[in-house]
């Protein structure tokens, strides 16, 4: 007899018992992105033509898009910062789905745009919500997706945005064996680290990718999720030798 367990499970997930939350920015030339990238560009290749289908060369509309690999809501895979790391085509399908926990420090970030998420913050979160499960996706909620400019520059043009302390990421990897991290700004590390003269600007990003994990940057709507109990799906192309690409991420959680 055919086993319909998964079909029934999908039906249940799409019922009012669960809420689905899109964690992705809309992809367009106006999409928030890292300052060093050009906006997405779309060139029209074919367009609908007047007349009957027999008169038309191609009765369709198609675009050719030009976009940076790390544009908008996107995935970074190990190859992005690590020459020997896995490219996108070597990321397994099991790595597209994770249990999701949300570390909320949005209030602290509102008071201090240079806020750094520490291992102590994560331990305090665990004291309230329980141990982070192995293989979890752990995003840092800052509510930064509500900013018009992710860099949040001051009057001198110096950016101010929150980020991870490298020791927090190390703790998650070494003590909890997490699967991935995520955040709302365009960088893993805080702005005062990425712009510090004479120092390597991306220590946290270097670490998580060399630890053979992926990360999702420029996330949104983390404020719509509970701290525990959700799952996250991160879909992106199986691009040969790819270092990153815009993604579609969404979370599902029970409302009853």
In short:
This protein is an alpha/beta fold.
What does this entry look like structurally?
The protein has 256 residues and is of the alpha/beta class. The chain has helices at 5-13, 106-111, 119-129, 166-176, 191-194, 203-210, and strands at residues 18-22, 41-46, 62-66, 74-76, 97-100, 103-104, 116-117, 137-141, 163-164, 180-183, 214-217, 230-235, 244-246, 248-254. The protein has a six-stranded mixed beta sheet with strand order 6-8-10-11-4-13. Helix 3 (119-129) crosses helix 4. The mean pLDDT is 94.
Range of strand content: 15-25%
Largest sheet: 6 strands, mixed
Integer average pLDDT: 94
**Spans of at least 5 consecutive residues with low confidence:** none
Q: What separation lies between the terminal Cα atoms? A: 32 Å
Order of helices and strands, N to C?
HEEEEEEHEHEEHEHHEEEE
How many β-strands, per DSSP? Answer: 14
Helix amount: 10-25%
| Lateral strand order in the biggest sheet | 6-8-10-11-4-13
Overall geometry comes to: globular
Compute the CA-based radius of gyration: 20 Å
The secondary-structure class comes to: alpha/beta
Separate helix tally: 6
């Amino acid at each position: 007899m055919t086993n319909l367990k998964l079909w029934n499970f999908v039906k249940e997930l799409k019922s009012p018992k669960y809420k689905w939350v899109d964690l992705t920015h809309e992809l367009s030339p106006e999409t928030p992105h890292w300052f060093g990238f050009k906006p997405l560009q779309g060139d029209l290749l074919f367009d609908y033509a007047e007349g009957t289908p027999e008169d038309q060369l191609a009765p369709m509309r198609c675009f050719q898009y030009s976009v940076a690999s790390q544009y908008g809501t996107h995935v970074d895979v190990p190859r992005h910062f690590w020459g020997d790391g896995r490219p996108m085509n070597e990321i397994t399908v099991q790595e597209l789905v994770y249990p999701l926990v949300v570390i909320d420090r949005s209030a602290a970030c509102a008071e201090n745009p240079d806020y750094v998420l520490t291992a102590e913050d994560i331990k305090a979160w665990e004291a309230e919500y329980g141990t982070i499960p192995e293989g979890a996706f752990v995003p840092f909620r800052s509510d930064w997706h509500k900013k018009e400019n992710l860099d949040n520059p001051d009057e001198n043009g110096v950016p101010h945005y929150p980020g991870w302390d490298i020791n927090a990421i190390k703790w998650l990897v070494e003590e909890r064996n997490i699967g991935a991290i995520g955040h709302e700004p365009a960088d893993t590390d805080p702005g005062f680290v990425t712009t510090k003269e004479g120092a390597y600007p991306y220590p946290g990003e270097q670490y998580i990718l060399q630890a053979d994990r992926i990360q999702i940057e420029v996330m949104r709507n983390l404020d719509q999720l509970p701290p525990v109990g959700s799952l996250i799906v991160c879909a992106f192309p199986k691009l040969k030798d790819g270092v990153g690409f815009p993604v579609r991420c969404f979370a599902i959680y029970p409302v009853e």
